[in-house]
Amino acid sequence: MAPRSQARSVAAGTSVSQEVAEQSAVGEVMVRSLIRSQLRLGLVVSAGFAAALLICWTAVRWVPDFADWRILGIPAPWLMLGVGVYPIIGASAWLYVRAATRNEDRYRDLVEGK
Q1: Is the pLDDT score of 10 beyond 60?
Q2: Where are the extended beta strands (E) located within the chain?
Q3: When you count CB atoms within 10 A of the terminal residue's CB, does the N or C end of the chain come out lower?
């Protein structure tokens, strides 16, 4: 016997949006799926941000000539870690918002039956 043959089927007149609104088992699965996808996205963006910071730190720490560079009299490591991090933060935030919006749009399309 197939595992899905024992699952409760959704009535033909019941829409997915009704299932979500009524907080039925199907609706809970749909919402949990959205939450999991958003959590996964957050973890991936956080890991990418941490990796970018680690690369910056590694360049400062392990490239000896880099510590001697000066730009407008300011040590290059200070500029990289103090100013160069902000574009990384901005790019991470932009990517997260874009992907989170896409996840929510896909969820909305699924719930509305588009």
Answers
A1: no
A2: 70-71, 74-75
A3: N
